[in-house]
Each structure stands twice: as structure tokens, then as C-alpha cells.
Amino acid sequence: MNKIGLVIAVVGVVICLIGAALFVASGDSFSDIEESQKYEGKDGEMKLEGYAEGGWLIVTMEGNYTNGRSAIINGSASLTDEDCDLISNFTLTGENGDEYFIPTCDNPDDTTEDGWVHIGVICDSKGRYSNQSKGCPDGNYTWDTNGTLINVWDGEQIIEGLISGLTALGSGLFACCCGVVVLILGIALAFLLQDDKDAQQYATQNTDHALLKNDQDDGFKPYEKSGWDEQEDYIRKEKKVDETEEVKEEESKPEEDSAEKKRSGEYELPPPPEY
User: Fold this and answer.
1) Tens of pLDDT, residues 17-41
2) Do the domain assignments include residue 67?
3) Does a structural domain hold residue 170?
4) What mean pLDDT is reported for the chain?
């Protein structure tokens, strides 16, 4: 197999593993959303820290909006008149005696169909969801909800968890798709491309064996290739005989020329003496 193809296949496997790791990370990010829950109960105490000058908390309860659903499809949605009157009596009292719960009957950003509706915010120090900007000093707070079950969620943590989870999920899916493509490409190249050593060996074999041999799978029948081999040996033997005869003729030619000169009366004069 070709080494380049094997390397590409290994790279594809590594990319797939990275994609799997991103999938796991997306699950951890979504699990962080559950950890953003700060309170669940009816009437009771809640401890808050770190919301004096930043962040905000969303308060929810079971129910539906006026559109008959617990999520907002387009624009904003409003609580029913009955629920709006109900939450107007909810209170969250701090240790200093101040009230911190801000009811909101109109909500623009509840997009989760979960059977729960947004009913207000607390610790909204920057006035994101109401005209009131009021942070929550560190300490204990007391809820009075007339026996209604509520949940309190960290808004910033929910948004960060959703963004990081969706980003990791999309990146993991993209990495896995790319890894599979690279892996398939590497496997194909590993089997289709010929290695350099194999190519040299193949070329050497073809040079040494220009004529057909019996052990080659070339489509000829054994008796056809056997006759071709015999003919090849005969041609080689005949060529050797012709070369031997030519050598003998060249060796005997000077003697024949000398004898012919003698018969014709032609003799070579001796060289003149030296003085």
C-alpha cells in the first residue's frame, strides 16, 4: 500500500476523533444550562451572590401565554390576565427589607416550548427586561408566591451555555464529516497508488522479461506460451551459429587471399636492404 495514502487515512481518523471530542464538549455545555438553575420552590429562602452589579435572573412558572403555547414564535407574547394578576402579588424581600422581584406580563424572548412561561426578573442591574435597574446585594432573600411553584434561572449562563453548546455541536459535526471524507480518500489512495519500490521492481521485471513466460497470467494458454519459448530458444541458437560462421570466415579469408595471389603469379617484392 502507498505510504502517502496511509498518512492521509491517519489524518482522517484524527479529525474524526477531534469531532467526537467536540460532540462530548457540546453535551457538557448543554449540561451547564441545568446548573444555571438558582432556585426551585414555592415560598422559601434563596441565597444570592455576585448579582449586585452584573447578570440577571429569570423567574418562570408553569402555564401558557395568550397564544396557547409556552413559547414565543414571533415578536412577543403576553401572560393571560389571570396569570398577570397572580404574579403581581409575588414578592422577593431582601435582608434590608427592599423588594427585588420585577413582574413582566409581556415577554420577548421565551423560545423554549417546555410548559413554563417567563413571569419576571430579579437582579436586573442594567435594565434589560424592565425599566427598573436594581441589582441584588449578596445575602438571603425570601419568596412569597402564594403557594405557586416557581423556578429561578441565571440568564447569562443560559445564553452562554446555548451558544457554546451549539458551536461545539456544529464544529463536531463538521469535523466528523471532514474526517470521514479524508479517511475514505486516504484508503482509496493507499490501495490505488503504487509505491515507489513496487514501481521500480515492476519496471525491472518488465525489462528482464520482455518476452512472455509461462508463469505470467497474460491470457495465453500454457501450450501457446510453451511454443513461443521454444521458438525463442531456436532463434537464439540460430543467431549464435551465424555469429560463429562469420568469425570463421573472417579468420580464413587472409589465407585464401594469399593462395589466390600465388596461383595468379603475383608475388610481393621483399623490402630493399638497408645501408
Assistant:
1) 888 888 777 676 666 677 788 999 9
2) yes
3) no
4) 76
Residues of the domain holding 67: 43-148
The model's pTM is: 0.56
Mean pLDDT of 84-111: 89
| pLDDT score for 211 | 46
* Domain end residue (candidates: 148, 173, 203): 148
Residue 3 resides in a domain: no
Say if 268 falls within a structural domain: no
Number of domains in the chain: 2
For residues 136 and 216, membership in a common domain is answered with no
140 and 223 in a single domain? The answer is no
> If you write DSSP's letter for every residue of the chain in order, what string do you get?
--HHHHHHHHHHHHHHHHHHHHHHHHHHHHHHHHHTEEEEESS-EEEE-SBSSS--EEEEEE--BTTSSSS--SS-EEB-HHHHHHHTT-EEE-TTS-B--EE-SEES-----SSEEEEEEE--TT-SSSS----B-SEEEEEE-TT--EEEEEHHHHHHHHHHHHHHHHHHHHHHHHHHHHHHHHHHHHHHSPPHHHHHHHHHHHHH--S--TTS-SS--HHHHHHHHHHHHHHHHHHHHHHHHHHHHHHHHHHHHHHHHHHTT--PPPPPPP-
